[in-house]
Amino acid sequence: MKIKTLALFVLLVAAIAFMGATAVNPTAAQTQGTVNLLVNPGFEEGHHHQDQIAEIVVPDGWRLYWVDGSTFPGAWDNLPAHRPESTVWNSQGGVPEGEEVFWRDGIYTLKIFKAWAPMYAALSQDVTGLEVGRRYRLVAPVYPDIVMEYSGGSKIPPDRPDSGQVRLGASPTGAAWRDEGAIAYSGWWTGATISPFYQTYSTFIHDFTATQENMTVWIEFRSTYPYPNNGFFLDTIGLYTLDEVDQTVTSPPPAGGAPAPAGPPPTPFPTATPRADGAVVHVVQSNDTLWTIAIQYAGTMGLTPEEALPAIRDLNNNPAFINVGQELIIVPPGQTAPTEEPTPEPTDEPVEEAAVEETAPEPTAESVEEPAVSEPDTTNSICVAAFNDADGNGQRGVGEGLTADAAISLFRGGSNVATYVTDGINEPYCFGDLEADSYQVQIFPPADYMMTTTGSWAVAVSNGMDMNVEFGTQYNPDAGAVAVADTAVTESADTPVDETAPADETGGGSNVGLYVLGGAAVLVLLAGIGVVLLRKS
Fold it and tell me: Smallest Cα–Cα separation from 166: which of 137, 138, 186?
């Protein structure tokens, strides 16, 4: 028992320290392959001055809300918030060096900002034609550009980790902004609950059940302190249909008393059918963006959406924007796109199956003491697994089994809630009976393994929700340094790299890198010791 307690303590110390070096960047790859239901999701289809206010520029199809002249809960010293400014920034007008990270897709990004005052604002869009009882996933990449001070041309993020805050929500249309009773909110994400939070894009995810055909989705952000710059960038927001349907949810009856009609069924992605020459081509439709196309064809290309986005750009001469009717090459002629083997149709004829002798693993004291594995359908749960990503493509393919001895921790409000060590047999394991809130799921790979997917996810759990998270790992004897170096990346996958930048002549940057890698190696060693002790207990 003493060994097990020591193991959990060592693992917890490593987990808490490791959170500060790990990027949280959940992506739309967690959607279930459906069409983006939002209009103008990437802000490429026009913008306007909302309410004829010169300082408020909003993408068409969206509406901006803000607090002006009054305080809000959490504002420092109860200072009043002031109306922000907003702009739909066109990259073709020139981008200052180092700020290319603000764009995720196309030539436009949305910036909402205020200097020297607290700020509380929200972006919303009304959505029609939803199916009552079906679950939907709101995916919002947000870049908190909050600056405590400028030093040597660099932005210094706030020393108050909870200064910046983001949350998502959904409500019936007509609900007033900040009506907690009408809007189904996620919890607030802050720099105190996920890391890194500032000066990087994190993609926040919130699932909700449609209670009527027409609903409003909300993205809220606030900064509680009067910093020199309180800013937030957003680009390519998504709303996707999930497979889950709650038949007990019904629409409220209309004024006449007749039952409300159900919304249309979700529209799946079209099947990627190669042409005669083997090429796969996508014809651009209304509301398409390069990011949604990358999500759609990632499986066809055998890539993650983050990898598919730059690949599609390269195949089509890096277009700055796309037009309806334009043909985009997804798979070039002569290349065979990965396909799944068709499932044979059932027949009435009996089929004699060959007997397969399975050898059950011998029970040991170690396996007896493993945490009990809950069923994947546990209500309000986050179900986790680690798989051996042999081809390193970030997706679990045929023949890629589970990985043992990976420690997966669940955090809530910056505190460790639970830790599970995989055995490579009984996953997925479910952290069940969770309260509705925002959580962070963090993996610590076993010794000699590196990550092929992001190592941490920010997830908003709402009532009746089951979230599945899989982590890709790959054997690599040098993984101790590589895994940590990979998770410390805070820029998006398609961020351009300036390879011509001069090296640090003082050598200071090089030394800092060595210190970071050295510290990372110590953290990995701590995590490894914790896992070994926990297994041996």
Answer: 186
C-alpha 497: how far from chain center = 23
Which domains can be identified in the chain, with CATH numbers?
2-20+376-498+507-536 (2.60.40.10), 35-245 (2.60.120.260), 280-331 (3.10.350.10)
Please tell me the pTM assigned to this model: 0.53
CA distance 370 to 120: 46
Does the structure show a pLDDT above 90 at 494?
A: no
Whether the Cβ atoms of residue 25 and residue 203 lie closer than 8 Å to each other = yes
Measure Cα distances from 41 to 30, 90, 285, 386 in Å: 17, 15, 13, 32
Task: Return d(Cα 371, Cα 377) in angstroms, integer.
Answer: 17
Q: What is the dihedral of CA 514, 518, 519, 525, to 10 degrees?
A: 160
**Phi-psi label, residue 237: left if phi above 0, alpha if psi -120 to 50, beta otherwise:** beta
Dump pLDDT digits (tens) for 378-394: 467 888 899 998 888 87
Query: Please, is 444 exposed, middle or buried when counting C-beta atoms within 10 Å of its C-beta (0-12, 13-18, 19+)?
Result: buried
Burial of 403 (0-12, 13-18, 19+ CB in 10 A): buried
Contact assessment for residue 66 and residue 57, using Cβ atoms and an 8 Å cutoff: no
| pLDDT tens profile 34-89 | 689 999 999 999 999 999 999 999 999 999 999 999 999 999 999 999 999 999 99
In this structure, what DSSP letter does residue 455 have?
S
* Whole-number Å distance between alpha carbons of 432 and 435: 9
Q: Which two tokens stand for residue 102?
A: 């603000």
Report how far residue 293's alpha carbon sits from residue 285's, in angstroms, rounded to the nearest whole number. 10
**Are 47 and 60 spatial neighbours (Cβ–Cβ below 8 Å)?**
yes
With tokens 């009976």, the residue in question is: 433
How large is the angle between the packed helices 508-536 and 479-487, nearest 10 degrees?
110
Q: What is the pLDDT of residue 261?
A: 40
Query: Is 90 exceeded by the pLDDT of residue 112?
Result: yes
Which tokens in the block code for residue 388? Answer: 């051996």
CB-based contact 488:516 (threshold 8 Å) = yes
